[in-house]
Amino acid sequence: MAKITFITSDNESITLEGSSGSVMALAVDNGIKGIDGDCGGVCSCATCHVHVRPEDMEKTGTASEIEADMLELDDNADEFSRLCCQLEIGDHLDGVVLRVAK
Amino acid sequence: MEKSELPDPFEKARVDKGYGELNDQDDPVTMLLRLKDVRKTAHNYKTFQSAAQPGRIVVPSEVNIRDTRQIPFEVDPPVHGEYRAIVEPWFKRPLQAEYQEKLTAQIASLVDEILNKDTVEVVNQFALPLQSRALTLLLNTPFSESETWISWGTHVFRSEGEALDADKANILYDYIDQEIDRAIENPGEDMYSVLLSSDFQGRKLSKDEVKGVMVLTFAGGRDTVINAVTNSIAYLAEHPESLERLRKEPEIAAKAVEEFIRYFSPLTQMGRVVTEDTAVCDHAIKADTRVSLCWASANRDASVFENPNEIVLDRKINPHVGFGFSHHNCLGATHARQILKILLNTLATKVGSIEIQDYKENIESLDEFERKVGYDRINVKFNKLT
Ligand code: HEM
Ligand code: HEM
Ligand code: FES
């Protein structure tokens, strides 16, 4: 079980618990504003973009090459950016804080 | 070659030089063929603009058949974003449960109609009615309107054999003018009425702007959806194991849809007009010429996709550009994805097998390339699941 916190663009903080699946699916199922997950998690739409809290980067890791190529052209992206459909939920993610990019 | 295969005609040019050349009505186009170049170019709207003369970014060019600017398609940021903000919530409605229920009912009843018929011509008797009926949900107009749209046939903009036909395009334009007038007199909950009452830069959208959005909604969502549906049926006919898998694992349908969009790439390419002398993959490109973003080629780029010429039903990482990329990415994608996903799940539960009887391929001629985009017609038999 992992507790994952989302901070939306209007500064609302929502903590959800999950044990499997992707972080994107968890967010979409719970209606987190700004995470649409249009492509269902295959890394083609970038509507699941989050900024990881810097100290949590160790837990999430950095973006894969294909993910980084998507994010490179997102004017809003920085070194803490991830497409959260590429984050698989597991104990290792417990406590992470993600700021929704949109 | 399998009947349902869509070969990749761009491979050699994509690997060797990265671009192709196409002369279209004396307004040549440099086709960009690699995924990275296509993405970068789509993102760089200042050098590669959409807000050119109406019709010019479409390949083949439509400058000779229309003056209406398509919105938000032929507008660049920042104004583009203001228009998108108005229409985006409307185009996200397919995510609502009620919308999906209605769509499921429509598709189920269409599939029931064609089950066990001796022969069904998929383009005209299945894909076209499916697309037209589904569009009544997107527009929130009466179901009966779909009969009018079906009666236009698949070639609403052209006569048989002629690429572009202004008279044909007028059927659609006149229809939309009438619908806008109706909505002005008698506003309702439909898309025309909603657009007419939308605020833009401190005023309401004008009639011409509403027309620009509506024409685009009809045009952009017609051949693309029809191609995607028809190609999906042809593929499932030849791949009963995939139909079987969708039956056992309905949850992979969303991934299968993305894979179909990548592989079929129902829209081959879209153009941009170059605003300053520049270069893409070491090839000089002059101001006031055109480039095209060739989605179909980018989606077979082996530097990104493993086994690009194979349909991998549950491909997990699939950063395709079948719905475009960046500012102008497809507004109708939410609707199109729902149509295809529901179609796959419905076929899996009702259809046991599909037999292809005969067909005529639709081949796009792009000077140095010939691309199969789908079928002009394809006769099949749908066998009921027993
Ligand atoms: C499988 C079906 C579809 C495919 C493959 C597809 C593909 C695309 C692509 C590649 C673009 C980008 C064009 C560019 O960058 O210039 C696009 C844009 C667009 N599409 Fe689709 N499309 C599909 C269905 C639809 C549907 C159903 C609608 C509406 C009913 C629609 C409406 C639009 C609109 C309005 C745009 C322009 C968006 C903008 O400029 O901001 N499309 N589509
Ligand atoms: C904006 C107004 C548009 C108009 C007036 C228009 C007009 C046309 C015309 C005249 C054709 C026939 C061309 C031929 O036979 O060679 C055509 C085909 C097509 N258009 Fe458009 N188009 C528009 C926008 C779009 C958009 C936005 C998309 C997709 C995003 C799109 C996708 C297609 C596709 C996929 C075909 C079929 C190509 C084929 O199968 O031969 N169109 N359109
Ligand atoms: S959900 Fe589409 S890229 Fe993550």
Structure in a nutshell:
Chain A is α+β, with helices and mostly antiparallel strands and about 100 residues long. Chain A contains three helices and five strands.
Task: Explain how this protein is built.
The complex is a heterodimer of chains A (102) and B (386). Chain A contains 3 helices and 5 strands. Chain A has helices at residues 23-29, 57-60, 65-72; strands spanning 2-7, 13-18, 49-52, 81-83, 96-100. In chain A, strands 2-1-5-3-4 form a 5-stranded mixed beta sheet. In chain A, a hairpin with a 5-residue loop joins β1 (2-7) and β2. The termini of chain A are far apart. The model of chain A has no long low-confidence stretch (mean pLDDT 95). By secondary structure, chain B is of the alpha+beta class. Chain B contains 14 helices and 12 strands. Chain B has helices at 11-16, 35-43, 79-91, 97-114, 122-139, 145-151, 166-185, 191-196, 207-220, 223-238, 240-248, 253-264, 295-298, 333-350, and strands at residues 19-22, 29-32, 48-49, 120-121, 199-200, 203-204, 270-274, 278-280, 283-285, 290-293, 351-366, 369-384. In chain B, the strands form 4 sheets. A 5-stranded mixed beta sheet of chain B has the order 1-2-10-7-3. The chains are: A alpha+beta (102), B alpha+beta (386). The A-B interface holds A 36, 38-45, 66, 69-70, 73 and B 36, 39-40, 43, 92, 254-255, 257-258, 304, 315-321, 323, 325-326, 329, 333-334, 337. The complex binds protoporphyrin IX containing FE (HEM) (2 copies) and FE2/S2 (inorganic) cluster (FES).
